[in-house]
Fold Cation:proton antiporter.
Amino acid sequence: MTANLIPLLMAAGLVSCGVYMLLERSLTRMLLGLMMIGNAVNLLIIDVGGPDGNPPISWASSGKATDADSLAQAMVLTSIVITMGVGAFVLALNYRSYNLTTTDDIGDDPEATRVSHLSDEEVIAAEQDHGVPVVAGDLDAVPDSEASR
């Protein structure tokens, strides 16, 4: 099995641009990033699907030595349908978010920001107040006398 270098480089470029766009704060750019990654996966599947050959229909022959593998084409068609479904879902989320906030950008979650600034002692106290068990990895910076409570 051999793969051509140019389609592989194109797929790598599409994936890298798609990941960059997914990391943006705009839902429209996230949607475009998802579409780019989906197209890169389709290109990769077609590229590694093998060389061209005779069609899989028995009466049609183009004189090639091998038959074409139709599995790669079926997988790409399925991938296209799934990518369009995910795209439609993200577009609906984008529309709903724009109607609620009149902006396309996603802001920081204030609760996540507040929790990220808590000290270890405050986290342990909050977990004990709410009855949530303390995770063993959280106790690394806490002295043993406080952890045994």
About this structure: Residues 5-52+69-111 form a domain with the Helix Hairpins fold (CATH 1.10.287.3510). The chain has six helices and no strands. The two ends are 62 Å apart (CA to CA). The mean pLDDT is 81.
